[in-house]
Design goal:
two-stranded antiparallel sheet; mainly alpha
């Protein structure tokens, strides 16, 4: 999450929206994507037709999970007077 927090601090300098990192759905969505990714790797190593079918189904699940993350409402923020980028870490 530290990478997301640093990136969010940097993006606040130029974008009028911020990801809602504190939303419980955000972390749950990332964890779901991790589980799906691990399962996709297992399906790929299984091989064969069954492995490909499993992989395709998991790819669809990953797409749906990413879509749910994308639909989490963002938080509006006021842009600073100066848009000069400064390090956030």
């Amino acid at each position: 999450m530290q990478v997301f927090r640093i990136t969010s601090e940097i993006s606040k300098q130029v974008f009028p929206l911020e990801l809602d990192l504190e939303n419980p759905k955000f972390l749950a969505g990332l964890e779901r994507l991790l589980r799906i990714s691990n399962a996709m790797e297992s399906a790929k190593s299984q091989g064969g037709v069954v492995g490909r079918i499993k992989w395709a189904g998991l790819a669809a699940a990953a797409l749906a999970a990413f879509g749910r993350l994308y639909l989490i409402p963002s938080k509006p923020i006021a842009l600073p007077d100066s848009s000069r980028l400064v390090p956030a870490w």
